[in-house]
Amino acid sequence: MDSKAELEKAVNAFMTYEDYLDSMITKDDLLFLEDKDMCRDLLSMEYHSNKRIIRREAFEETKAKKAAKIKEYKIKEQRICSEELTTSCKLMQELAKREKDNLNGCIATIIFIRDVNEKGEEVSAYIDYTHRLRTENWNLYFTGEKKIVPQETDLSFYNWTKGNSHHTSSTNFEVAPDTDTLKLFFVCKNDGYAIDVNPKIPVDELLFRLDLTDTNYEQAVIFDHVVDRPIP
Fold first, then answer.
1. What would the pLDDT profile of 79-89 be if each residue is shown by its tens digit?
2. Sheet holding 183-188, edge to edge
């Protein structure tokens, strides 16, 4: 087997470079050295082995390229509903611009909507855009056949007519009410950033707020959080 084939086989077989090295450590090695890390170090330097050892740099570079290809493939496979955009509603036009970035995890968008439901009740909600994208058919929204309706299962829902409220964390955000200040925060689970939706609070480089007018809703606001980095 040539070196390229060996590298490909190792990358496919092992999650990490350490796992690859461990596969070549024998019981006698551990009995003699009594230290797995030392065994790994000797193997990586091609000591104490009659086999050709793949370099860490080559393993990790190939692993990263393969992961990038898989991610790119998954992104291409995702159906982009905003390509069907036909409505003139400004909210939907702005959300169409953000669909790919939300699906890719570059940004995490929260939509605030206040509107009147089919029962004639005034309702509002903070909505996890990515979560809704993955659980609903957004073609109907982008073509204007259907309006986004605040739901009790959204991050935060309030029925102004009945005075009922509900808070529900999602796969992307943890709802964190502050009982002392009566504020509501949405904490991004990917990087721990806390979004304060209070309009009087200035935004920073990781948060963008867009208040929209001339939409099909009583009130519509978009909060874009630029996802920084995963929590270690």
1. 677 887 888 89
2. 173-178, 183-188, 194-196
